[in-house]
Amino acid sequence: KLHSDLDKGVGTVKYTLSGDGAGTVFTIDETTGDIHAIRSLDREEKPFYTLRAQAVDVDTKKPLEPESEFIIKVQDINDNEPKFLDGPYVASVPEMSPVGAYVLQVKATDADDPTYGNSARVVYSILQGQPYFSIDPKTGVIRTALPNMDREVKEQYQVLIQAKDMGGQLGGLAGTTTVNITLTDVNDNPPRFPKSIFHLKVPESSHVGSAIGRIRAVDPDFGKNAEIEYNIVPGDGGNLFDITTDENTQEGVIKLKKPLDFETKKAYTFKVEASNLHLDHRFHSVGPFKDTATVKINVLDMDEPPVFSKPMYTMEVYEDTPVGTIIGAVTAQDLDAGSSSVRYFIDWKNDVDSYFTIDATEGTIATNELLDRESTAQYNFSIIASKVSNPQLISKVNVIINILDVNEFPPEISVPYETSVCENAKMGQVIQIITAADRDLSPAGQRFSFRLSPEASNKPNFTVHDYRNNTAGIETRRNGYSRRQQELYFLPVIIEDSSYPVQSSTNTLTIRVCRCDSDGTIQSCNVEAIFLPVGLSTGALIAILLCIVILLVIVVLYVALRRQKKKDTLMTSKEDIRDNVIHYDDEGGGEEDTQAFDIGALRNPKVIEDNKIRRDIKPDTLRFSRHRPLVEDNTDIRDFINQRLQENDVDPTAPPYDSLATYAYEGNGSVAESLSSIDSLTTEADQDYDYLSDWGPRFKILADMFGEEESYNPDKVT
């Protein structure tokens, strides 16, 4: 109820309402100010409403007081029952769990106000599922209530859980849910055979590796806890049989390891043990988790085919053996109690089998045609043995007949029949390794020998060197061969084998003389190969000719440029004594080459004036100007050289221009050391050139020159 102090009760005040739910949930009496709810309220939907009220004058419509705000709070009542939002539940717990083992925790939610009264205080209880399980009233945790619950007795449990508000008091609302609990398996049961003795009947004709029977031990457990391993206890007959586990049925499958023979032994007895693969140590006290049963096997007599004395027969016979010659025999027997006679015959598959025959009663094998090892070296066929009393029972055996060789073919040289020799070949050089081949086949392997024929032994061209390992080398017997004199040589080589009787043949080896480089690589073996471009098209020939023309043009241009460069570098000063210094790029001939340098220019000063062409290159550095007196005729060359030497010693730009021309390199440790004038002394100290005489005949001319100069002038110029 709203009331203004200005309201005198005469109807001059009007009350208005605005805010949450005004006009829809709440309404106000404009005259009295009473507020009424016009529909039902739900606290869980909206717990409070914020409204604004104001008193205004009826006539002027002006507010009599400021607008006031107030909150209407919805008071809770217990109108919502607890609900299990995650139900129904599914849980599991291992069998044989102790009392109090945790199973699951359930939770119920009550939408009522937990802060007001006990409307939202929930208490849990079990309506169905006792006495197997219990639940905590406050937390909702479900636990086992009985010990040793056995899955093999009962596996599934359905528990009904109730959640009640108001603390479980009378009048409270309740909700329920279902919990499905499964007992999981543990290995608490050993395997057990349903009976102590198993009887099996097995035909003696059963194949090795085949299954001859099944036995089964029962394990009430589930999954891997029920997996069983079977083993044969060592004893009578255990070595003839084996047992494995069928993973799908957990049965023991007995298999045959060795053939059975009714005539040898008619019955076998052994024990089989069944045990669990996965044991649980908590249940060891229950006892051993294995069981044992006896297996008795009775062998059934069967009418069996004959049995050969060997699994395979191997025989040998020489080629060209006369028809009808017996080369061997096969033997088969009927091992059944009522022994029957055996008949033999060849299993015809192709025409090759017709080369041999077999005696139907005795089993002897003989030749039916002449045999040739070079045509067929081995025969492989089958012999069939059948019982006379029951021809349908047959056995087969393979027979291999090796044809032995008779030495009837001479050995021959293997390819190549043609080889080559270089024109520059040296004596004793191996130009070809040859081998031999023989169509005969010796059991111990063939040995071949090589030699020249008598008519070729006297010719001094080539010889054969037998390496005694079935190979031989063709060697030269002279230095050098000429294609112009003889292009082809024919070398007869005799080859013998080591079999009996000895066979030999003469093979002619063709040797072609070829032109080779210094490394022995063949360049051409005939004149036509040098000049004829065999197999080249017209376009290719034109391209080759164009390339040759271009190369010739390049060479001509290069020579022209070199000559022009030499003309530009010539120096024409007639005052310079260096006219005799010659610069060239080819290597000199040493001391014995007296044509490369004209020493007479040093002894005839007139040559200095006449020779105006300079052959060295002037340096770019500016030279100091100095007065050079003219050299008169008949001036002693010695005084002239001394004068020039003194001038050049003080002139850093004077020739030579420290240019080095290397003609040969003797290497480190040379007795002659350096012959360069770069490191020569500038003083006139005496120098002894007698050591030049010790350098050998190549320095004889140089030693004579300096020896003559020393005798002519005792002063040495360095």
Major pleated sheet: 5 strands, mixed
Percent helix: 10-25%
Rounded mean pLDDT is 80
Q: What would you say the CATH architecture of the domain at 412-523 is?
A: Sandwich
Structural class: mainly beta
Instruction: Provide the CATH superfamily of the domain at 412-523.
Output: Cadherins
Q: Which CATH class of the domain at 412-523 is shown?
A: Mainly Beta
- Strand proportion, as a percent range, falls in 25-35%
State the helix count: 7
Poorly predicted parts: 528-534, 571-579, 601-628, 681-685, 714-718
**Number of extended strands:** 37
Q: Kindly provide the radius of gyration, computed on alpha-carbon positions and rounded to a whole number of angstroms.
A: 63 Å
**CATH topology (fold) name of the domain at 412-523:** Immunoglobulin-like
Terminal-residue CA separation: 143 Å
Silhouette: flat
